[in-house]
């Protein structure tokens, strides 16, 4: 019992506390989430990924194995989510929403911060690699599912190619796998930007939650939240053993798989008119419920 308390106090609350600050201060300071999220999306996130991957000493075969593990985990979760939506006779847009929610956890700000606090700096590289892989898969699935629900294509591939996180990956891998040395000036500049990513994105998450006004507690909201918080990490645990991952790689992957629904899913849902109120409710409910689910998951790991 004491372990649960200390993990909640020292790992979960520091992360969620920054989110709460954004929620409480955003209205009083008249801040807009879009400004912070766009800055983080185009500047801080690529810098973080470049710093983490370029300085890592990781073999290519291990990286491929980790990416395969997390992709298969999420594809399995997506298939089950879509199957449940269809099995329960939900309309096309609701099925697409279930798929989108299952595919995209908050693996950036929320996931990276908690994993770093719980598992230490050694987990930053695998957690970042999972972050990139999940984000790419999620963008394809979310945009593709939205296009399917609307009866047409929305350019899923082009949406992925425009992702700044993806731009940073090739040069980072090139530096990591070669003898090239990044100039000190650039290293320090990238380091400063990278260090800003997590706190800025957590604060922005609080602002985004503040802007989500409508929340319902229907059975579908709880079901979709359960898929994201419980089913996905359960699949991750099973597949981690099949891929024979090292303990820290497994723990980081399971935790990333159990993150609450990313706020970006609500944004995509609003832009494509995919039951936005439902998706927004799942984002809020899964984020709050993750305070309990992630604490328990960290104790088990």
Question: What does this protein look like?
Answer:
The protein is mostly helical and 301 residues long. The protein contains 13 helices and no strands. Helix 1 (2-29) runs antiparallel to helix 5 (109-119) and helix 6 (124-149) packs parallel to helix 12. 49% of the residues are buried. The mean pLDDT is 87.
Portion in beta strands:
under 5%
Portion of residues within helices? over 70%
Gyration radius, rounded: 18 Å
Q: Using DSSP, what is the number of strands?
A: 0
Q: Nutshell version of this structure?
A:
This protein has 301 residues and is an all-alpha fold. The protein is built from 13 helices and no strands.
Features:
single chain, mainly alpha, 301 residues, 13 helices
